Amino acid sequence: xxxxxxxxxxxxxxxxxxxxxxxxxxxxxxxxxxxxxxxxxxxxxxxxxxxxxxxxxxxxxxxxxxxxxxxxxxxxxxxxxxxxxxxxxxxxxxxxxxxxxxxxxxxxxxxxxxxxxxxxxxxxxxxxxxxxxxxxxxxxxxxxxxxxxxxxxxxxxxxxxxxxxxxxxxxxxxxxxxxxxxxxxxxxxxxxxxxxxxxxxxxxxxxxxxxxxxxxxxxxxxxxxxxxxxxxxxxxxxxxxxxxxxxxxxxxxxxxxxxxxxxxxxxxxxxxxxxxxxxxxxxxxxxxxxxxxxxxxxxxxxxxxxxxxxxxxxxxxxxxxxxxxxxxxxxxxxxxxxxxxxxxxxxxxxxxxxxxxxxxxxxxxxxxxxxxxxxxxxxxxxxxxxxxx
Length: 389
Ligand SMILES: Cc1ncc(COP(=O)(O)O)c(C=O)c1O
Description:
- By secondary structure, the chain is of the alpha/beta class.
- The chain folds into two domains: about 15-250, Type I PLP-dependent aspartate aminotransferase-like (Major domain) (Aspartate Aminotransferase, domain 2); about 250-385, Aspartate Aminotransferase, domain 1 (Alpha-Beta Complex), CATH 3.90.1150.10.
- Helix content is about 35%, strand content about 15%.
- The chain is globular.
- The protein starts with 15 loop residues before the first helix and ends with a helix.
């Protein structure tokens, strides 16, 4: 069945078209131009870092960051286990070995307990990781006050993967500004999109200059094409950046709408055996509302398929990296003594449609279908459908 309601589709309602038209009218189509510079400056200012480098994807941004920290063949890189593969695939591009770190219960972000275990193991091995990638998962910040001191103690630099967390905060400070380098993603399902794209964020201008150089084929600054090392074609185009600028202007509104959708789910689903993730740490951007099923007769796959039959797209949460065939041989450190917390999360949780273009009627339908899935009843009348949040 075709979906009527998508998980997190793009929603463009600001100046995006105007800025793209401007790129066309001024013939700044490829590759650099004023929108690219503007998008970088405005995003850096929004997040609260010195500067930014717009890239073709979030994955490319992580690849560049790993490069900057000198990751190469034979090195270890620690990484959140409960994430999308884009977080850790670049470790393999560089011939290094990922070591996965489990989640803490409730927020599902990296566990400081598991991280300590991994560092103690690496120390015994006599080989500390070259870098550590910490994810702000599903738009909710990692526990930086716990995690950063551990990384500092061992002197290992941090890449903050804030791909899902633009606009989220931790104790008043924006996600993307906690790592030595932060990254964002602007792919089609993120809170703001450039159709596809990403960004490196940092206060370290030397790091950004080096990554900028690598992202443009490592071309030496001379008139002819001169290359002393190889690079990548990882820059964002001026047209994509024009979309991004328009999207960034609407971010405050998107945050309010996504939060309202989350709050409504939390209110309306309170009678069902479901527990909502974002209730545990303030400052989320509510990119996706995620919930754990607390009913052993219902599985995530079953619930996703019930919603799908009603034309609603939902998703099981990320399948942990240590469970992926491609990362089978990699080590993983657990939060608990005997089991990985994120396996439990994976076996119980799903993401609900959370797009900021969702109508109230669409939310009604999601809630009604969830009630029927647990043999309950909820019917919203016409009146509800006419009102706004
Ligand atoms: C946590 C996380 N890291 C990295 C990425 C990779 O970003 P991109 O798809 O822009 O390459 C994504 C999203 O796709 C993500 O959700």
